[in-house]
Structure to design on (194 residues):
């Protein structure tokens, strides 16, 4: 079984932790997994892309263009920017609330996420669009956006493992003082009705 997950967002959103939770969950489920991140621009507001490859040990850590089975977009522009790596049958979970990336803030034009969301819908076989920040706020902190989106992906059946593996990895990989917040956010995501 080979399964490729691309996570796209901006620095400070928890994309790297999300990729580590996915890889650890895959390992717990008995699969080989590897991750790779572009974190050179991971300061708050910079673009961050994480690759999670589940399956063959001989594959590159970087997902080739047109090969991702799932794109988890923490921000619409970053999801749209990464859509070229999604396979023709690929699925998406995208948070719809815009966070102006550094690249957009350098431009004087207004930053409107609507065209990017339409682009994602046209170019993904199955896209779930969700106000992930609203769900994270319901859990108690917008910093739990990452676990909310993982919950939405689990509920949609977009992952090759289930709720139990991710909850277990949250307990093992998140700082003890934030475990309950992240478990709550994850379960809110699991309960999300698209």
């Amino acid at each position: 079984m080979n399964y490729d997950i691309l996570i796209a967002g901006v620095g400070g959103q928890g994309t790297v932790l999300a990729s580590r939770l996915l890889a650890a969950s895959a390992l717990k489920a008995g699969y080989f997994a590897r991750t790779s991140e572009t974190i050179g621009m991971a300061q708050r507001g910079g673009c961050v892309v994480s690759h999670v490859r589940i399956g063959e040990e001989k594959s590159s850590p970087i997902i080739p263009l047109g090969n991702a089975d799932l794109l988890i977009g923490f921000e619409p522009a970053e999801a749209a920017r990464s859509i070229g790596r999604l396979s023709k049958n690929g699925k998406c979970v995208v948070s719809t609330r815009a966070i102006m990336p550094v690249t957009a803030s350098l431009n004087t034009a207004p930053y409107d996420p609507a065209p990017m969301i339409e682009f994602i819908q046209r170019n993904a076989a199955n896209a779930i669009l969700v106000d992930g920040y609203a769900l994270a706020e319901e859990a108690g902190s917008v910093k739990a956006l990452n676990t909310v989106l993982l919950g939405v992906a689990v509920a949609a059946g977009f992952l090759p493992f289930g709720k139990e593996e991710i909850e277990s990895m949250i307990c093992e990989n998140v700082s003890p003082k934030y475990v309950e917040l992240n478990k709550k956010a994850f379960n809110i995501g699991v309960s999300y009705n698209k």
Q: What stands out?
A: The chain has one domain: 3-191. The mean pLDDT is 91.
